[in-house]
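To whoever is on call:

I kicked off a structure prediction for a single chain this morning and the downstream step that reads the tokens threw a length-mismatch warning. I double-checked the sequence; it's 246 residues and nothing unusual in it as far as I can see. Pasting both halves so you can look.
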Amino acid sequence: MKNLIFWGTSIFAVPCLRALYELNELRPVLVITQPDRPKGRTQALEPSPVKIEAQKLGISILQPVQVKEILGEIQKCAPEVMVLVSYGQFIPKECISFAPCGIVNVHPSLLPKYRGASPIQSAILQGSAETGVSLMLLDEKLDHGPLIAQERILIKQEHDGITLSKELAMVAATLLSQKLPLYLAGQIQPVSQKHAEATYTARIRKEDGKLDFSKSAAALSRSVRAVFKQRKTALRSYWRGMSSPH
């Protein structure tokens, strides 16, 4: 059985952690996740969804403020491979060499499209007919490494940022559990992305919680589906330069 280190924080990563835990070929020996964060009116510290799941599964957990704090602990685990899913922090390049099979990154888009922080929302905003999940090897550039596998799904009219994220999380878990063992066995050879076709996304900001009624009805609908329901922000409308709550 091969040792595996899992990096993840958000709810999107939980199905992947659970799927890896259930594999016979691999053993998650360590979960690395973000520190507990203050939430709500009381600002009480709240653990990440991945931490909660790791505790249920009995897996050791590290929560560094900066990854460089735990480089020694990572090396001691002697992982065959590391898996990165929605971790939310930069991974130092020296970490890539700690595992013979590298760091497998799970990205919720059909790379090289929608590299970056908001691939799910961006696919809806831009009216894409399909999206998917990519497994790729991490390198020193943003979502740039060679591809191990991809799975496509259609974006339906009823999809919003939340429902599409949930569906992609389950697709990611299945794809990872099927393809990671094949990659580790040498049965899948990663292939370079078509970098000339790359597109990039930015982190969703408060300013994105606005509606511009000079846009088409279709564009407004995509904005509501992609952003407002997920951020739970107040709907703000902008008409002829004047703003008013809606």
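Update from on-call: the warning came from a stale cache, not from the record. Cleared it. Sanity check on the structure: The domain at 2-200 is CATH 3.40.50.170 (Rossmann fold).
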